[in-house]
Design a protein that fits this description.
Distance between the termini: 61 Å
Strand order of the largest sheet: 6-3-7-8-9-10-11-16-15-14-12-13
Structural class: alpha/beta
Length: 540
């Protein structure tokens, strides 16, 4: 391919990238010239030339993060303007909406089941249902009550997914001035990029859809290969990924921690070396989807050294937040990326008329359910996640769990944040202990004694005294949840019981339900015993 043709292809590939940035025309022209040079230059220039773009992105980020109300109001007005031309907008009188109060009066909070009739219209071919026109994609995901869910992704919403992921990396470059990881091989452990069609709309896992929009300047060093990424069976795919990556200069690894740990374990089995020796220039780990703390110790032990990391908070419905500073574990909420956010105090969520707060109305330390309204055509949509704000201006959160993933069989309302923190605190007192995975369920009718919580735990290395570990874990949970404390002290519940599981128990379970690998996660908590009863067959 001659230089003119190659340059033409690069211009075509990056056209959308800088349009999405909403830069002035002159700046876009300069940026396109920069990227052409960036793309065609030898390795090493990516690291150097990423810094000016990182500085620009950081400057814009400071503007909107310090004035979230201004930018959220602009997004709200644009969403309502576009929504007036849709069936949903006509059904909910968008023409009469002037304020957020008007909106709340007309648009109730819904989960996927509530929006499903509109999604079905889109699948049947109807345009202008939730957003003008038709979606570019459906992100296919699994629901506990709705079966398979088809989340629309529109031309307007795709920049939220792509630019937010990119800006997470650029924030790190801006803050640390470290960018050499951009010059090596980058691996994204994700779902298959193969897409089917649903009602004439391309359909696949979010990670697979996003794979088609990886910027041109990163495609040349992206791994694994397209063919390998298309393998459906996770274990077969994992072996092929290792075949392709061993011997490569891997510098960035991204994925959900438990599946990354499986990748690391297989590398160590193959080579007999820690991951950090196999990939000596590995210098960036990007993760999301689960609380990192239960996996952190083992992951870094597998690497053999500490590696800088960035936490992200992506969802099929939208990219919600990312870690913008190595000095702060809070995740910066994307207040200027096509989503108008609402938050409902988790303790009041199931009330008849719970309060709905805009981003500028929240407080720190309160557990909120995340509600989004977006240019993908999601309106009053209950994301199902719960978060707590750690700071305001900029607004940063930590993810605390799922509103449906809790135990309140006895009125205790124990949430994921509490069980994870209790386990973390207990493991600190038993440093020999290593946990692969765990989940918690209520036991309402034990064979003897009072009801209790049962912890199904797969240990890589069990504590030297399981009974003492169990006792400490229960005490930590009592301190973290006053309702649980009252139930224990009032002799309504007996203290928790740990049920150790066989090696690979969770892998076998996830495989049995077709959710091994990719973006799938084990629920930390359940209010029923579906998962617990399945794991009961795999106890030691």
């Amino acid at each position: 391919m001659n230089l003119r043709k190659a340059t033409g292809l690069v211009v075509l590939k990056v056209q959308n990238l800088f349009t999405c940035l909403h830069l002035p025309a002159f700046i876009r022209l300069c940026c396109r010239a920069w990227v052409i040079f960036f793309y065609l230059c030898p390795m090493g220039f990516r690291a150097v030339l990423s810094k000016p773009l990182a500085d620009y992105v950081a400057s814009r980020q400071r503007q909107w993060s310090q004035q979230p109300q201004v930018y959220q109001q602009r997004i709200f007005q644009e969403l309502i303007r576009q929504g007036r031309h849709t069936q949903f907008g006509r059904d909910h009188n968008f023409a009469d909406i002037a304020t957020y109060q008007d909106f709340k009066a007309r648009v109730p909070i819904r989960d996927y089941e509530g929006l499903k009739p509109y999604i079905e219209r889109i699948i049947k071919g109807q345009p202008d249902v939730l957003w003008p026109g038709r979606p570019l994609y459906f992100a296919k995901t699994s629901g506990t009550t709705s079966g398979t869910k088809y989340i629309p992704i529109t031309k307007a919403s795709i920049p939220n997914h792509i630019n937010s992921a990119r800006n997470a990396l650029l924030s790190y470059v801006h803050e640390t001035r470290q960018s050499r990881f951009l010059d090596g091989k980058l691996i994204f452990l994700s779902g298959s990029p193969e897409l089917q069609e649903t009602g004439g709309i391309k359909t696949g896992r979010l990670s697979g859809i996003v794979n088609h929009h990886v910027p041109a300047y990163l495609r040349t060093n992206q791994m694994p290969s397209y063919a390998t990424n298309c393998i459906d069976d996770w274990e077969t795919k994992l072996e092929k990924i290792i075949d392709e990556t061993l011997g490569q200069d891997m510098t960035l690894i991204s994925g959900i921690p438990p599946w990354v740990q499986m990748y690391f374990d297989r590398i160590i089995e193959r080579t007999g070396k820690p991951v950090g020796e196999v990939f000596p220039n590995f210098s960036m780990f990007v993760y999301g989807g689960v609380n990192f703390e239960p996996y952190k110790k083992k992951l870094f032990e597998s690497i053999g050294r500490l590696v800088p990391s960035i936490e992200t908070y992506p969802a099929s419905e939208g990219f919600i937040a990312y870690q913008d500073s190595q000095e702060d574990n809070g995740l910066l909420v994307m207040a200027n990326s096509g989503i108008f956010f609402e938050f409902v105090p988790a303790g009041e969520f199931y009330n008849d008329n719970p309060p709905r707060l805009a981003l500028h109305e929240v407080e720190t330390g309160v557990n909120y359910v995340v509600i989004i309204n977006s240019n993908a055509g999601l309106w009053g949509y209950n994301l199902g996640d719960t978060v707590k704000f750690t700071s305001l201006f900029p607004h940063k959160v930590v993810v605390t769990g799922r509103i449906k993933h809790f135990i309140s069989a006895f009125g205790e309302h124990v949430i994921a944040e509490e069980v994870e923190k209790a386990l973390q605190q207990t493991m600190a007192a038993f440093p020999e202990t290593e946990v692969v995975e765990f989940t918690v369920a209520p036991q309402v009718t034990p064979e003897e004694g009072l009801p209790r919580h049962e912890w199904y735990v797969e240990f890589r290395q069990p504590p030297h005294d399981l009974a003492a570990f169990e006792k400490q874990l229960d005490l930590h949970l009592q301190k973290l949840n006053s309702y649980y404390f009252d139930l224990i002290s009032g002799h309504i519940l007996q203290t928790l019981q740990i049920i150790p599981l066989q090696p690979q128990a969770f892998v076998r379970y996830m495989k049995s339900i077709g959710k091994l690998g990719g973006q799938n996660k084990v629920p930390r908590l359940a209010n029923d015993r579906t998962l617990a009863d399945a794991l009961q067959k795999m106890k030691l």
